[in-house]
Write a structure and sequence with these properties.
By secondary structure, this protein is of the alpha+beta class. The protein is built from eleven helices and nine strands. About 40% of the residues lie in helices and about 15% in strands.
Length: about 325
C-alpha cells in the first residue's frame, strides 16, 4: 500500500524524456552517476538540472530502495511545490522508462566540501578566512535541517559533501538516499548490516547509529556537528586523535564511549567549537535542536544580529 501511495505522489512529478537535454557527466560513483542536463519546464523555458540515476550494472535492491527513498522524500518536501530555500529543489522524476532519473536543481558551485577547499586556497593568498561566509553556510544547513525535523524526515548523511552551494551562495541540503552512491569518497566504509553490505559514513555517525543502527533527528544533529567541524576546518576530513584515518565501527565506538571527540580545528573560534561539541553529547535528548542551532550560529553573525535586534549583544565574532 505504501508503494502505491509513493507512486501516486511521484506521478505529479513525472516529466517527458523529450523535455530533457542531457549534456555531460558531473559526478560518478560506485553505484550511480549525475549528469548535467537542460529541462524544458511547462512555462516554456529551459532550466539547468542535475539528473541522478543508478548505474545499470549496479542495480541492486539496496540501491533501488535508496533511489526511490530519495524521490519520495524530495516529493514530500515539495508537497506545496515551493520546497525550502535550504533544501535542493526538485524539478521532476523520470520513472516510466529506463534509466530512471531524479531531476534536481543544478548548483554551479558544486558541493560545500569542494567550495571550502577553494576558500582554503584563497585564504593562503589573501589571508581572508571568510569565517562569516562559512558561518552563513552553517546557518543555512541548520535551517534546512529544521525543515526536515518539522517534516519528521531523517537525512542520515548530513555532511559537507552532501550540501550544495547555489550561484547566490546559499547552502542547500542534498542527496537524500543516494549520496553514498554518487560520489567516490573515502568517507564511507563497508559494513555488514542485516546480512547486507552497506557503505556507511562512520565518522559522521552518532553513537546510537553506530551502536544500534538508530537514525533520528537527534542523530542528524550529531552529524551536523561534524559538518560544522568541516566548515571551520576548510573541509578537512575528520580524524580522531589516536585513531587511523579510516577506523572501523568498533574503534570509533570505543573512542566515543571514552569521551574522545574531534579536536578544535586551527583558527576555529571557541564559541563555534562549543556549538560543535554540544552536538556530540552522548544523550540524544540533550543535543540542541536545529532551531536552537540556527539561533546560536546567528548570534555569532553581526549582520544577522542587526536584522534581529532582540538578540543580546557582544556575542558575535569580529
Amino acid at each position: 500500500m505504501t508503494s502505491v501511495i509513493i507512486m501516486e505522489t511521484l506521478s505529479s512529478w513525472e516529466v517527458d524524456r523529450e523535455d530533457i537535454r542531457f549534456e555531460h557527466m558531473i559526478g560518478e560513483g560506485e553505484f550511480g552517476h549525475v549528469v548535467r542536463a537542460g529541462l524544458r519546464v511547462p512555462e516554456g523555458y529551459e532550466v539547468l538540472v542535475a539528473a541522478k540515476t543508478i548505474r545499470p550494472d549496479r542495480k541492486m535492491a539496496s540501491t533501488v530502495r535508496d533511489f526511490r527513498r530519495e524521490m519520495d522524500i524530495l516529493a514530500r518536501i515539495h508537497e506545496d511545490n515551493e520546497g525550502h530555500p535550504n533544501v535542493v529543489k526538485l524539478y521532476g522524476v523520470l520513472t516510466k522508462s529506463e534509466p530512471q532519473y531524479i531531476l534536481v536543481e543544478y548548483a554551479s558551485n558544486e558541493e560545500l566540501r569542494r567550495y571550502l577547499w577553494t576558500l582554503r586556497e584563497q585564504c593562503k593568498i589573501t589571508g581572508d578566512r571568510k569565517l562569516l561566509e562559512r558561518l552563513g553556510f552553517a546557518s543555512d544547513v541548520a535551517c534546512g535541517l529544521s525543515e526536515l525535523a518539522r517534516l519528521k524526515i531523517v537525512h542520515r548523511d548530513i555532511a559537507a559533501r552532501n550540501v550544495v552551494i547555489s550561484d547566490r551562495k546559499v547552502a542547500k541540503i542534498a542527496d537524500f538516499g543516494l549520496a553514498r552512491d554518487v560520489y567516490v569518497s573515502s568517507a564511507y566504509e563497508r559494513t555488514e548490516q542485516g546480512g547486507e553490505e552497506e557503505l556507511l559514513p562512520l565518522k559522521w555517525m552518532a553513537v546510537e547509529s553506530l551502536r544500534d543502527g538508530v537514525y533520528t533527528c537527534e542523530s542528524d544533529v550529531w552529524s551536523y556537528g561534524v559538518l560544522l567541524w568541516e566548515i571551520t576546518s576548510f573541509g578537512e576530513e575528520p580524524r580522531y586523535a589516536g585513531a587511523p584515518m579510516h577506523p572501523d565501527v568498533c574503534t570509533i565506538l570505543e573512542l566515543l564511549r571514552k569521551g574522545v571527540r574531534l579536536q578544535q580545528p586551527q583558527n576555529c573560534p571557541l564559541p563555534v567549537y562549543r556549538i560543535i561539541r554540544s552536538c556530540w553529547v552522548f544523550n540524544p535528548s540533550r543535543r540542541p535542536t536545529p532551531d536552537e542551532l540556527v539561533r546560536k550560529i546567528d548570534l555569532l553573525r553581526p549582520q544577522r544580529q542587526a536584522a534581529h535586534p532582540g538578540y543580546p549583544g557582544n556575542h558575535y565574532i569580529r
